[in-house]
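Can anyone check this?
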Amino acid sequence: MSESFFIGGFARLTGRSVHTIRWYEAQGLIPGVERDRGGRRVYVRDHVEHLVFLEQLRRSGMTVAQMRRLSALAMQGWRTLEQRKAVLRAHRAAVEAEIARLHAALALIDAKVAYYDDWQKAKKRPPPPHPPLPPQKPRRGH
């Protein structure tokens, strides 16, 4: 028989709060949780790995709706592997795009810090490192 845990042990093992675990369950993201005769939730090692995976997806920007879809597909078994891979590939592409945006932001931050370094060394304000951006058109509803 595989190792099993009640919610308190599951929380200690994963480093998550009982509240967080119940939230994931309420969202339909931790499927297959059985209950013992006393009605207590019984978790297994697969639930630990699944929760860690879900939290990484969430941290990387996957929506709860997308995670629900992925969990629902997982509950359907091996026949949905291609669909699950497609969901994960699309999310990976979105994460890569966000990383590129963050790298661009870091480059601007680094340039600004270098500008301030130059200013301190010269004891006078240097010319701006980049031409000013053109004004943006106001967006509707803002």
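Reply from J.R.: I decoded it. Strands lie at 4-5, 34-35, 41-44.
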